[in-house]
Amino acid sequence: MKVARSPEELGRRERAVAIGTFDGVHLGHQRVIAAAVETGLLPTVVTFDPHPRIALGYGVELLSTLERRLELFEEHGVAETLVVRFDHELQQREPEEFAGDVLGAMGTQVVVAGETFHFGHRRRGDLELLGSLGFDARPVPFLAGVSSTEIRRLLHAGDVVGAARMLGRPPEVEGTVVLGDERGGTLGFPTANLAVGPNLLVPAFGIYAGAALGTRSAVSIGTNPHYGGLERKIEAFLLDFEGDLYGNRLVVELWQRLREERAFDSEQALIDQIARDVEATRAAKRPS
Questions:
Q1: Angle, helix 160-167 to helix 148-156, in steps of 10 degrees
Q2: Structural domains of the chain, ranges and CATH numbers in brackets
Q3: By C-alpha distance, which of 132, 59, 131, 56 is closest to 90?
Q4: Burial 50-66 (b: 16+ CB within 10 A, else e)
Q5: By C-alpha distance, which of 196, 181, 3 is closest to 83?
Q6: Separation in Å, CA 172 to CA 51, 163, 184, 275
Q7: Could you tell me which residues are beta bridge partners of residue 250?
Q8: DSSP code per residue over 212-244
Q9: d(CA 149, CA 66)
Q10: What is the pLDDT of residues 107-127, one digit of tens each?
Q11: pTM of the model
Q12: Banded model confidence at residue 179, pLDDT cuts 50, 70, 90
């Protein structure tokens, strides 16, 4: 998939554009993207970075990084993506100007978006306006019960299976592998420690079964209370994996919340519990 930061990089071609932020690329977002793909025109996404709420100074916990969103767009058949920088200047642009300078400049024929999509100065732009400007503007109805807000609520509760039903795939934590306290190695379960971006949502503390790099993984999210930890850590033990992951980006799927984190009476009791967590991870089923 080709990724551009300006319409000129993509050039003028007859295309169908799905437009939106698409945080998480959940099942509702996927319907919008599919509507563009199904036109038979060049399937293109126009998305925004940073997230508009973050750019405007409001807090929002992201379900996915831009890099992960782009990967998911490609998986769903998108051929080209334009990443538009969202800032105060963009917010103040009149919608007609945005439509001409961005959508028109790319040769857009069809525009698809969620039925309540708005853009431009004072959020005056919508699909009706785009239709009046000559685009074939097609609203995509919401998928009942599916929203990024609801997915966030489920993840805060540790319900990764419920979140997976709305995402159409397991929820994920993503970060860069950094040097940890290396305690897992001494216990016989070496872990990859993830440094996660400040705006990314991290699910409820606990022990999870999941997968990374195609191998099942037991994942700990929390403070390591057995050792009196205070700082949140995300540690993944990749079963049957050998290799050095330091400095690499790692996307970890979460399949099932196995238990809450807790302190143990002894280090041996902790080791025995981790062994049971590993066996539960081997038996876990991937939700979708």
A1: 160
A2: 2-140 (3.40.50.620), 163-283 (2.40.30.30)
A3: 56
A4: bbbeebeeeebbbbbbb
A5: 3
A6: 18, 10, 22, 23
A7: 175
A8: ETTEEEEEEEE--GGGT--S-EEEEEETT--S-
A9: 18
A10: 999 999 999 999 988 889 999
A11: 0.93
A12: confident
